[in-house]
From TrEMBL:
SUPFAM superfamilies: MetI-like (SSF161098). Keywords: Cell inner membrane, Cell membrane, Membrane, Molybdenum, Transmembrane, Transmembrane helix, Transport. The keyword DNA-binding does not apply. This is Molybdenum transport system permease. It comes from Shewanella glacialipiscicola. Residues 6-210 form the ABC transmembrane type-1 domain.
Amino acid sequence: MDWQALWLSVKLSSITVLVLIPLAILAGRTLAYRQFVGKSWVEALIMVPLVLPPTVIGYYLLVGLGSQSWLGQWIEQLFGQQLVFHFSGLVLASVIVNIPFAVQPIQRAFEAVPNDVRDAAACCGMSRLKILLKIELPMVWPGVLTALVLCFSHVLGEFGVVLMMGGNIAGETKTISIAIYDSVQAFDFKAAGIMSLVLLLFAVTALALTTSLSRRLGGQRGANHR
C-alpha cells in the first residue's frame, strides 16, 4: 500500500472540492434561474469533460500551460513555478475535469426549488444573498452533497489527466491511481489489488451514504412542506 500516494490523492480531492463546490453553486444557480444568449453553448461546454477522454484534456493543459507556451511562461514569471508537473497543476486539472460532476447536480437542485418560495422570500424583503443562504441552500443541500461526493470520489480515482499534467513524481504528483498502474507494471498485483479495493470500497460506501442521506433530507423537507 502506497500511503504517500493515498494521502496525496486525498489532499488533491479535498482541495479540488473546496475550490470547485462554491464556484459550482454560483454557476448552477445562474444556469437554473437565468436565461441568456448562448446558454445552451455554455451548458454544452460544461459537459465536455464527460465525453472527452481525460488524456485529451490533459494534453491541451500540458501544451497550453507548459514552458513553451506564452501562458505557461507568464505563470512561471508571475509565481516562480510551473503548473505542469507540480501539485498546483493537478489541482487546476482536477477542477476543470470535474466541472460537470459539480455543476449538473447543483443546477438540477436549484431548478427544483419552487419559484413561489423565492418570490415569497423576496416579498418579505429578503435580499438575494439572504434568499440564497437561508432559503435556497437548505433546499438544494442534497444536490450540493451529491456534487461534493461525486467530485471527491472522481478526483480520488483520476488517472489520465493526472498522468498527462503531473507525470509520476513521488510525493508531488504520484496519486494512488498512478501507484496502482506502477504496481501492475511491476507485476506487483497484490499491492495493486489492495489499493484498488480501497478505492472501490470508498466509492461504494460514499455513494451509498450520499443516496441514503439525500433521501432522508428529501423526506424531511417534504414532511416540513406538508
